[in-house]
Amino acid sequence: MKLLVPSSSTTSLPPSAFLLPPLPHGYPFQGSFNLSNKERRRSCIRKAGPIEITARFELKPPPYPLNALEPIMSQETLEYHWGKHHRAYVENLNKQIAETDLEGKSLEDIITISYNKGDILPTFNNAAQAWNHDFFWESIKPGGGGKPSGDLLKLIERDFGSLERFIDELKTAAATQFGSGWAWLAYKESRLDVGNAVNPLASEEDKKLVVVKSPNAVNPLVWGYYPLLTIDVWEHAYYLDYQNRRPDYISVFIDKLVSWEAVSSRLEKAKVLIATKEKEDERKKRDEEQFATGEAKTEIYPDVDADGNVE
Ligand SMILES: [Fe+2]
User: To 5 degrees, how large is the angle CA 269–CA 262–CA 141?
Assistant: First the structure.
């Protein structure tokens, strides 16, 4: 990844000036489960002269060299996929949000705002593709594959019946996504999204793993799910290495590339976020009930004159 370097006519601010505020608690995809707030830092440039600050998203590199996934995924594929396609999404996003209400918002906020409950706004595709590809590169690793373990494996067996059934379902979703898109493993915490309704706490049965597929740039964040793993099934992800043999790409992706450690880590973070959000929801509900029944504690401040005497 190349940092966006201020031009000679610009003046850099100290790095501390560019830290984004933490994402709000309970945000369904806070941290995207693998990006710290530090990593979410954007390159900001203050132009010389009148104060003008612009914030730009950076192209983040895969966490390994571009030839590290060979022979399963060639360096040439990564040079095109990351170096050109992913780069274009980030650069186009920066152009689209410049001097709009979206400038300065987190990538996740831009995704949900521009998804617009399915009535997709122009910015959505570049924003979601930028996020999806960061997530994709960190879903895999050199020497990946093998089997999941621990709580992740237990949940897979609970929600799909067996590891083999889960793998079959994931492969089917990836193979049958018509045209460009993505296949996902996600942790689902359903929330009722109805006007004038209060979102209920998710029931235990809602907290489960699901396999979903999505067209084009759509990802599970827009449904309030917690993504854990993704397979990019756009042709640019596999055509140089596998031509039209998408099922072969999917099989070797799962067998040799998936970082189950990353998936497990994302699951644990999702659980923590959900638990935190539930506590906050309970607290708010309690406060509202106390307010409604008049039980809320009211602090009374007596009037005091200039000499400190209570009137
Ligand atoms: Fe891609």
Answer: 160
Give 212-245 pLDDT, tens digit per residue.
999 999 999 998 899 999 999 999 999 999 999 9
Tell how far the Cα of 10 is from the centroid of ligand 1, in angstroms.
33
pLDDT of residue 132: 98
Radius of gyration of the chain (CA): 23
CB 75, CB 67: distance < 8 Å: yes
Distance of CA 284 from the midpoint of ligand 1 (Å): 41
Query: 73 alpha carbon to ligand 1 midpoint, in Å?
Result: 13
The pLDDT of residue 54 is 54
110 C-alpha vs ligand 1 centroid, how far in Å?
Answer: 19
Ligand 1 centroid from CA 28, angstroms: 23
Tell me the CA–centroid distance for residue 224 and ligand 1, in Å.
22
Going by pLDDT thresholds of 50, 70 and 90, the confidence category of residue 34 is: very low
DSSP string, 139-184: TB-TT--S---HHHHHHHHHHHSSHHHHHHHHHHHHHHS-SSEEEE
Q: Is the pTM of this model over 0.90?
A: no
Q: What percent of the chain has pLDDT over 70?
A: 72
Range with the poorest average pLDDT among 174-178, 187-191, 192-196, 266-270? 192-196
Measure 135 CA to ligand 1 centroid, in angstroms: 11
Q: How far is the CA of 87 from the centre of ligand 1 (A)?
A: 10
Q: Are 135 and 62 in contact (CB under 8 A)?
A: no
Centre of ligand 1 from the C-alpha of residue 74, in Å: 14
Residue 13 tokens, joined: 């601010």
